[in-house]
């Protein structure tokens, strides 16, 4: 993600500032907190593309690049990476806006896979693009 341009990031889905309660013993934001933000953002995109409910089934190629600090404004970007018959992989990139200089710091990147669900919570085909 470090060589990614703004145009490559995809859609800005979430922008959030972590709270004091999100800090771990090292003074950084919990990794699980950012994973949940990524899952929410990916789910928003997957739900839109599935035109209905989806479930997260996998997280792959996850990489933490830098810690998230208290006071960071965290932006979560998402874009479709690949599509199967019932599943959809969403590339999710997370960037912090940090400090007075508003420096952009790449934080983490990963691919989340979602499955479209029918009324019985079983996999169903994604609509054709």
Automatic annotation (TrEMBL):
<dbReference type="GO" id="GO:0009062">
    <property type="term" value="P:fatty acid catabolic process"/>
</dbReference>
<dbReference type="Pfam" id="PF03061">
    <property type="entry name" value="4HBT"/>
</dbReference>
<feature type="domain" description="HotDog ACOT-type">
    <location>
        <begin position="6"/>
        <end position="120"/>
    </location>
</feature>
<dbReference type="GO" id="GO:0052816">
    <property type="term" value="F:long-chain fatty acyl-CoA hydrolase activity"/>
</dbReference>
<dbReference type="GO" id="GO:0005829">
    <property type="term" value="C:cytosol"/>
</dbReference>
<dbReference type="InterPro" id="IPR033120">
    <property type="entry name" value="HOTDOG_ACOT"/>
</dbReference>
<dbReference type="InterPro" id="IPR029069">
    <property type="entry name" value="HotDog_dom_sf"/>
</dbReference>
<comment type="similarity">
    <text>Belongs to the acyl coenzyme A hydrolase family.</text>
</comment>
<keyword id="KW-0378">Hydrolase</keyword>
<dbReference type="InterPro" id="IPR040170">
    <property type="entry name" value="Cytosol_ACT"/>
</dbReference>
<dbReference type="InterPro" id="IPR006683">
    <property type="entry name" value="Thioestr_dom"/>
</dbReference>
<dbReference type="GO" id="GO:0006637">
    <property type="term" value="P:acyl-CoA metabolic process"/>
</dbReference>
<protein>
    <submittedName>
        <fullName>Acyl-CoA hydrolase</fullName>
    </submittedName>
</protein>
